[in-house]
Amino acid sequence: MPDSMQRPGEFEIIRRFFSRQRVMHPETELGIGDDCAILNFAAETRLALTTDTLVAGVHFFPDADPMRLGHKALAVNLSDLAAMGARPRWALLALTLPENDPEWIAAFAQGFFGLAERHGVQLIGGDTTRGPLAITVQALGTAAGRSAVKRSGAQPGDAVYVTGGLGLAGLGLKIRQGAYDASDEEALDRLDVPEPRVGFGLRLPEFASACIDVSDGLAADLGHILEQSAVGAEVDWENLPLSAGVCRYVADSGDWEMPLVAGDDYELCFTAPAMKANAVTLAAEATGTRVSRIGTIRAGSGLSVRRAGRPERLWRSGYLHFVSRETTDESPPR
Ligand code: ADP
Ligand code: MG
pLDDT value at position 325? Predict the structure, then answer.
């Protein structure tokens, strides 16, 4: 058996696949190898922390490409940091693996570190255990000197924006499930290897009054901004940024709700006062990010969607764990 094919044990996995990396931050007093990692900060540093788990059979198909999985496990966490306007710096990785297949782990590590290096993220610890395939990543970022962008700051009159495009991951999932027949690499890539909007996220403190990343569907996630800011919003369906493939899906299926309720796009949905519109445009140009204005914050509560000039009722509200159906919101639009 060639050396690369020998089955590594827990510590061998950590040493061989996760201990070597290019990114090392000066604040890292202790990284992988002891009982804890130690970060040593100057005063006034503010840390943003987040964690997300991907479980086989729930968040991804058990036979998913390990390199794409390594990317996604980190990407979903960097997306949370981006939504706060934080700069990603460190990560912890808890891996539960059904078997110690070195090729699988090497590909996973390649996907993970590929994204980590692009965004200056140092892996400083984690856990490696045997069991049903699941991946938990914790990401730490800094929001030095500036206030983080919360969900609670939206004001009546603010414009509602979204980066990139909506419904791509939803379309990718329908294709992968065999529920819709199309060849759309863009949609499959969005589902498997989403790009966290880190560069644009760093600009958010310049103009955003509130922000959230779109992981459970725009309606559900914008709904969190509305609840926490105690406001309502109007969104025009015609202003949603939809790819040609998503438009074709909507035309073929009549399922116009999909771009509003499908999850996994990892775009940023944010609000900004009207006087900041220019700053939004500048940040979009400087970071090469498509940004679309999709609606307006109003006094009151709840999301109203207008399509072809008429108010529509949303029957589905997004993905919820512990709820048996995608359809959860039976209340009429407010
Ligand atoms: P402990 O039992 O004290 O929690 P472990 O033996 O589990 O420590 O891990 C040894 C070291 O390797 C620790 O520093 C831990 O953070 C790190 N580590 C374990 N698994 C991973 C992983 N998948 N990726 C990165 N670091 C890891
Ligand atoms: Mg210990």
Answer: 43
95: which 2 tokens? 């891996």
Q: Considering every ligand atom, which ligand is closest to the CA of 38?
A: 1
Ligand 1: residue of 20, 32, 108, 112 to mutate (most ligand atoms within 8 A of CB) is: 32
- Among all bound ligands, the one having the nearest atom to the CA of 122 is 1
**CA 243 to the chain's CA centroid:** 19
| Closest ligand by atom to 37 CA | 1
Mutate to test the pocket of ligand 1, among 11, 13, 14 (most ligand atoms within 8 A of CB): 14
Non-local (6+) Cβ contacts of 166 within 8 A are 214, 218, 240, 241, 242, 246, 259, 260, 262, 265, 267
Average pLDDT rounded to a whole number, residues 184-207:
97
Look at residue 333 in the predicted model and tell me its pLDDT: 38
What is the pTM assigned to this prediction?
Answer: 0.91
Q: Is 262 helix (H, G, I), strand (E, B) or coil?
A: coil
Q: CA 189 to CA 265: how far, in whole Å? A: 10
Amino acid at 36: C
- 25-60 exposure pattern, b = at least 16 Cβ within 10 A, e = fewer: eeebeebbeeeebebeeeeeeeebebebbbebeebb
- The single residue listed with the structure tokens 């980590």 is 116
Per-residue pLDDT, averaged over 230-238, amounts to 96
Residues 6+ apart with CB under 8 A from 247: none
Q: What is the pLDDT of residues 2-19, one digit of tens each?
A: 544 578 899 999 999 999
Yes or no: say if 44 and 162 are a contact pair by the CB < 8 Å rule.
Answer: no
Identify the bridge partners of residue 93 per DSSP, sorted by sequence position: 126, 137
Helix (H) or strand (E) holding 80: helix 66-83
Q: How far is the CA of 215 from the centre of ligand 1 (A)?
A: 28
Residue 121 contacts by C-beta under 8 Å, 6 or more apart in sequence? 23, 74, 78, 88, 89, 90, 91, 115, 139
Strands (E) across 111-190 are located at 122-130, 134-142, 159-163
* Position in ligand 1 atom list of the atom nearest CA 127: 20
